[in-house]
Amino acid sequence: RLARAAAMAAGYDYATNVISSEGKVYQLEYAAKAVESSGTTVGVQCKDGVILASEKLMMSKMLVDSTCKVVHKVDDQIGVAYSGIGPDGKSIVGLAQNIAHKYKQNYGERIAPGVLAQQLGDILYAYTSYAAYRPFGAHALVCGYDEDHKESQLYLCELDGTVTRYWGTAVGKGARSARTEIQKLKLTEKTCAEALPLLAKILHTVHDPSKDKPFVLEAGWATDATKGTFSRVPKDVLAAADAEGKAASEADGAAHGGAAAAAAGDA
After folding, report:
1. Which of 22, 78, 84, 128 sees the fewest Cβ atoms within 10 Å?
2. Which is nearest to 79 in space by CA: 199, 218, 198, 191?
3. What's the CA gap between 174 and 169, in Å, rounded?
4. Is the confidence at residue 267, as pLDDT, over 60?
5. What value does the CA radius of gyration of the chain take, rounded to a whole number of Å?
């Protein structure tokens, strides 16, 4: 805390183009806090495609479920989901759509997920390098079907411009716990339809009703069944997966609670 206070006093946190004496860019750390306090978004590459699912926090009981979407289609075979500040996330989605449109306009073919992710990362990095800009307060997951390599792909574009490919990852307030659960489930051996209820369970597990606002599950996928086209999961399929995931999460919670009570009684 003393080191950060000294850095602030020295003006190291005034702009993104200033590196502190400790080798840190404090504006990026502040932006990352916005992601860490937002709803959790997960992405997984399965054996028949790739899927994105998000815990969309409902800030008001009067909010219409379908508004403020966090899972978006940016090209025929590519989807983007984000965690962080809403308007920043929407701007990132807009940038991704523009990149995809210009690529098709210039080259006459659809952009690959990896190419889009790299170009998007370059733009995110640029916003950390000029005093007139501020970094985006959101991370983005980019997924889709690569027609050249004949495979589904998943990428994480972080707010500092770092782009990495994953078979499964998560961002947001419950990212650490969600990543741990994803590693245990071996979702690359399952279909997207089989993985969806498991992802719903993860999101319900990392959600804390006593601290967090209620949430709505959003999801989209590009699968063999959709012929590589990215689309939002049908409402009936999503509702069934959400109910199954919630029930499984509550059952696990009750089992853990019972075990803890028994251990306390024995003590």
Report:
1. 22
2. 218
3. 11
4. no
5. 20
